[in-house]
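hi support,

uploading two proteins for the ticket. first:
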Amino acid sequence: MLLFWLLMQVKLLACAFGGLSCHEFSGSMRWLASSDATTPSFTHDLPSFLQIVDFDDVQPRNYGYALEWYDRKHRVLNWQLLSPVTPRELAGTTPSETFPHHSHQKGWYMKAVLCKEYGPPESLAIEDIPSPKPGAGQIVVSVKAASLNFPDTLIIQNKYQIKPPLPFTPGCELAGVVKEVGEGVHHLKAGDRVLGVVPYGAFAQECIAPVERMVPIPEGMDFKTAASFLMTYGTSHHALRNRARTTPGESLLVLGAAGGVGLAAVEIGKQLGLKVIACASSDEKLELCRGHGADATINYSSEDMRARIKEITDGKGVDVIYDAVGGTYTEAALRSSAWRGRLLVVGFAAGDIPKIALNLALLMERDIIGVHWGAWVPRAHEEFAASVEELGKWYRDGHIRPHISMQYPYTQVADAMHAMLERKVTGKLVITVDE
């Protein structure tokens, strides 16, 4: 009885909404209304006030702003953005008559990786969502490639300092082509090739980005390399150039040297005239580090790291420690640093945030220095521009080159994240989006 009453109310609602007589709803077309305008319905978590089912061989659906045609397996056949639609606009039509010129390729909708609830990588979904529109000072980028960084694996588990509202699209580093620019954007235009970083949103066919975080792709750089460039090299450049204020001849110990930021730190350290000591967990990873310029290596899975540091530095200790790992290695490295040594706190890939006894800083006048590149960029436009310029020059001169060890399509982003969490990645892992 309740269902019958509901269907009758819905039919009356449909007739009233459309301004038609009920006799116009004939054949196999039925109208169903959502009881709550904010209640998700059908196959998408989007608000709907009206759904239409069983319309001959297809199923049109009305969200008020987006109308989609589906086949019986719920595959999108075609769609169009509309103002709120009345039944009169649909009565007696077919998809080809209603939407002769519209398709997903027109850019109304896009595919995106969605984190709808916090959890492991396999909880992520691939869905259609509306394409973004740029606001003032923003651009929309048609994403060609993105890169997976360790924070991406944390943000979907609610373990990162940035906590976007659910649902959201992960991914913070991308490369692609400008699709559209917002008000006040003058130095970029549609069609420009760009790379950059965003707080989240890169694992999608399109991404909205603050214009100050996007820069032109250097000449001769492909999209996969571009997507692997700015965050890792930018972080390491900022750490060594601006935070540690290194000088030529100093020694640099890099923990996790075969990872993305670690390998970038090895290369940048050499460009800054430092003696680079690379630390990693396997001989294969250390061989990679030597190929990127490391002067000495330590396998901290099989060697006594403190004894090796003492040996390599002739008992002096290291001047600068680049730590993107954390865990038990941090304190051991700090104890092996020189007078007025500097510990750069970059990240905690090991999972554990170390608790350091501050007397270690006091006794040798050591500095413990935080490095948060993402927070620095919007606060220091001139320094950021100078950093990008220097990195671009080093790339053009062949001194730095991102090492891409793995690539996955965005539809397999869960597998990519597991590869990173299981420490199978050296250098960078690229997510291909639209090749």
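and the second one:
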Amino acid sequence: MRSIDESQPHSIFFISDYADFGAAETIRKILHEATITGVLEKAGHGIYIKPKISRFGKVPVPLEKIAREIAERDKCEILPTGSTAANLMGLSTQLPMNLSYIMTGSTRTIKIGDRKISFRHASPRNFAAKGRVIPLLIQGIKEIGEESMSGVEYEAIRRFIDKQQDPYLKEEMVLVSPCLNAGTTMPPVEPGIRCILRSTKGAAIESVFPVLRPATIAVVLAPISCVRRWGLLK
């Protein structure tokens, strides 16, 4: 097929890509022949990859790329979760053997060689944010555990945020100080809003956000409009 011959190394192909060319079994045989000649490699059930060769040998395709391609094929949104999210944020240095995501599609596990990509269906509210930095932060912090957060983790979050170019980041991450109004307590989280609150002494939090000086603050990861309605915005 011309599309395969003209494609770049590490291009990913699914049997469903060629549904208009004939029956699935016919397409499967054509793709299988391509694996025999070395044009393609079978990565998993119905998943084929054009190999990439360097002077050091064969370069494995990143599992993240396969996950994104599957999401695009199925017209779903995905978000790294668990150890996958923690590693991307620098909260964990351990490279996960398998990848895990939440998604708007159906729950499934895709086996790629001796590794796996796990997709778990999640409520659409997990994908309600305009940007992707805040939802990823939430998933990473959930994996580590809020009570396990320390200066090291805050520093990792600061470095992660510094590298991001998400145009919605400032809108969706709001720093508020409940102690501005004596006796004020945080209201309950509104339905459908994903929110993480953490109170801490100034020293630890200032390593992340050095512009802040209150002795005690709360970090709120929520849409700015929600925080404004609470009346807690500085």
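thanks. also noticed: The longest strand covers residues 115-121.
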